[in-house]
Amino acid sequence: MSKLKSHEYAELQNTISRKLDRVGRALRRHILLEAATRIGLAMLSLAAFSLLFDWWLELSLATRVGCMLAGFAIIGYLLWRYIYIPFQVSLSPIEVANLIDRARRVNDQQALAPQVASLLQLPGHQHEADQSNEMIAQAVQENYQRLSNFPYEKTINQKHTQACLLGLFAAILIPVCFLMILPATAQLWGARWLLGSSQPWPRDTRLIVVGLQEGQWVLPRGEAATLQIQVEDADKPTESVWLSLKDANGESETITMNRFQAGDFRYELPPVQLPLQAQAWGGDGQTELFEIVPIDRPRITDLSIRASHPRLSEPFVSHFSASEGNVRLLPQSKVTLELTTNVKVRKIDVDSEEISLQWNSTDGKHFQTEWTHEKPVNFRLTLHSAEHEISSHPRPVSIGVQPDRSPRLSFRYSGLRQRITPQATIPFSILARDDFGIRQVGMTSEVPLTGIATSEKSAIEPEEVADLSTPKNMNHEQNYPVYGPEDPARETVVEHEQRVSIAEMKLNPGAVITFQSFAEDNCFTGRQKTNSRQLVFRVVKPEELFREILLRQQQLRARLRKSRDQAEQLRDKLKLARNSEEAAAWIREHQLIRREVGQVSHALNSSVEEMKLNQLGGAETWQLIEQTVLKPLQGLHDREMEQQRQSLESLRSQSPEPLSQLTDQQDQIVKTMDQILNNMAQWDSFIDVVNQLNAVIKLEQVVKDKTEELKKKQTDSIFDK
């Protein structure tokens, strides 16, 4: 045997290696085909399993999701077992030969792997000292001859390959045939398992939700609605249908629907604000899981009218706030009606025999129309939603012909009552309103001449006194200009505060004075004048009114004394209490006491204001009651009693204040009320002294006047003699 050269060894090795590499690639294709067949058949089996069991048991969405996850786990395992692991093996020539030996199941003498190893590895040892190159060359040539004659193309089992192809073809053909033969069933299976649909499988009983669209049943938000389900039976008729409702919080309710007639079941759904999940079943059928969706019914959120007229300095604008608006416009007005909706509207129907309106819109929510107003019009607006088949309730609108109304006038007084002193000051409040403009506002006073005090220098002319017997001069009138006259009139609202001094009128006690205000506009048909109600005041003696006010203050003091006793009772309850079980009752009692104190404080303030306006007492008197009674009473109400309220509220919290502290605070409130009552008693004593001094002064004045009158008579009698 001749010695082989290095390139000859390489050529022999490359020849066998290429053959084994082709076998390796064929093995990889075969492994991939087998894996695809296994996975395809597994997927077909899982699909068939899901179809049969879902048809039989009507699996829920959660169960279907669990089965899908289990199926994905099985497919993942098959991919890992039959594709990932085999493709991680490196198919070298020796390993390919070893795989061929394992497939053939031969003994060691007939194995290919040792021969391939000798051919590929022996030439690498020929340069070693203890190796025979001739023997290496002989072994390589012998192994090459045997390996060259080996039928590598028969190592792949063709029957197994054909079986894999047939299985893969079946895994593809069966779903295609099923899809072609039963497309509805395949579509329903795909919707339930791939899209998560709850549409039920067809049964003998078929339930149809009337008005259901794309899995949603739409109803107006906040309104009662009737859910209707029609039942179609292939066998015996269905007698009962149940409805399951589930809200967003997960709370569910099962309801038995009312059988309206054969195959017609209904349920009166109460007003719904949030979406609900619903499903109905009866017989052997059920509906798919659908959603009850409340939506806002189309409605007009803002309806305004703008009208321009030659008599109007500015356009007239009105907003309809009620469900039915009633607006009257001047004839020949150019009218623009604008409305805003809460949702997009497809169209607006106008139900009217008097007018035809053309609406213009920019975004589906804002609409506008125009016309010239000639006569009263009445119409009803109905909105149609752009997204759902739902309409609004008809909105009636009435627009009439508006005459220019006379001014509206409000005439009030404040701070005192209708019994006043001759030195009183009366604050008046005048508020005049008109549609288009107020020309003039004024106020008048009227008092009988007999009630006016006279002196040596009388303000009344002798001619006027001589004519007192005539009716037209029985009353003395005085005007108080307030606003205007303004031409043209533009102000539509005139608000004025007027203070009238009665002392300037020099009225006697017993006189009756009447005040009245008036307002005038510039109506295009002629000026219109409005007179307010008459405010009548009677002039009384200061001491008489003073006694009335003091009597009311004494009544208020009695009310405060009663509240003081109630506060003392509450203090005793707090002192004897051992726990806070009656905290709610204590709080109510305290609030009643505080409310009474506040009312007394307000009434006392009003009485002091009445004294000031009637010039009763003086600055020292007013300051005395304010410092000793009013301010302490206000402080008691705003600070001490508020602090006690907060302390009582704390008894119902996690960190209550001690009862001893509440008792001390309540005791302080009682002491403060005692001090205020003492101050009110001192105030009464002070007023009594002042009244007595005034009585003495008046008595001395009367004595003086009588003495001077007697002296004058005696003097006159002397001269007469």
Index terms:
721 residues, alpha+beta, six-stranded mixed beta sheet, 44% helix, 25% strand, elongated
Give a structural overview:
By secondary structure, this protein is an alpha+beta fold. The chain contains twelve helices and 28 strands. The chain has helices spanning 6-57, 61-88, 93-104, 112-121, 133-148, 158-181, 183-193, 462-466, 542-576, 583-613, 619-650, 659-720; strands spanning 205-209, 216-220, 225-233, 242-246, 252-256, 258-261, 264-269, 276-282, 285-286, 290-295, 300-308, 316-320, 325-329, 333-341, 345-351, 360-361, 366-373, 377-385, 395-401, 408-413, 419-420, 425-433, 438-448, 475-483, 493-501, 512-521, 529-531, 535-539. Strands 2, 4, 5, 8, 9 and 10 form a six-stranded mixed β-sheet that branches. The longest helix has 62 residues, at 659-720. The chain is elongated. The model is unreliable at 454-473 (pLDDT under 50).
